[in-house]
Amino acid sequence: MSETPLPLVRTVADLRAQVRAWRAEGLRVGFVPTMGALHEGHLSLVRLALANADRAVASVFVNPTQFGPNEDFDAYPRGEQRDAELLAGAGCHLLYAPTVSEMYPEGYATKVTVARITEPLDGSARPGHFDGVSTVVTKLLLQCGPDVAVFGEKDFQQLQVIRRMVRDLDIPVEVLGAPTARADDGLALSSRNAYLSAAERAVAAKLNFTLRAAIAHLQAGHAVAAVETAAVAALDEAGFDRVDYVEVRDPEDLSRLGPGPLAGPARILAAAVIGRTRLIDNMAV
Ligand code: PAF
User: Fold this and answer.
1) Going by C-beta distance under 8 Å and a sequence separation of 6 or more, which residues neighbour residue 266?
2) Which of 48, 265, 272, 282 could cysteine-pair with 240, CB 3.0–4.6 Å?
3) Residue nearest to ligand 1 atom 2, measured at CA
4) Is 42 a catalytic residue?
């Protein structure tokens, strides 16, 4: 870890002043929005930002509007000091950590809604979630004004929603997707993995195992509908308490594929709950 404290700003004005100063020097700015509780996956996003820009800004903001009333907003892990140290160690140049009132001041009344691509999968399992994400990401991009912004493929639907939104709203930024960082047994790294007990952690690894098995079946020409049904049954059998979905979809617009064998590229996406932890994962087919 770096010994140098990472410069920190909490206001839009201070963030813009720093980005303006870098721009005046002719430097390109990369941006990595996060909700903190950082892990190696986030740090790989910072490294990708730095490979595409001269300066990297990371934001840490646990966005209340993307959590449902019965979700884990209050429990979501927070630790700004540790996050700042990890970011500095990865070469990040600035941490933007706004307060809730800086992001949503008194009287705030605007929402960004992306249609269609937000409807299936996490859109139906977590009503309102993508409005919260789209709104805060629009604000973060307008606040920072980066040349490139990096998001993880781990949240694949989120990534495609953000790409759609940036195109639709002509937001002048290049969106980059970064591959999912995984533990040795395949479990996608996630801040929420911190909630897992040892027994739950063993079950959690079956999520990625099941996706890999499903991909092998799809590549062998099995029908999409049968593969999806078998994967849901495998996750039930593995010990998940609830399976929200395992679905094979178009990798761009996330429209439904199947029910027969695949004829082209696809993405398989899954969400399942164990104890109080909801896990998501996805892979290219
Ligand atoms: O992926 C996340 O951590 C969040 O959804 C994001 C993009 C930072 C918006 O709050």
Assistant:
1) 218, 224, 248, 249, 250, 251, 257, 284, 285
2) 272
3) 34
4) yes
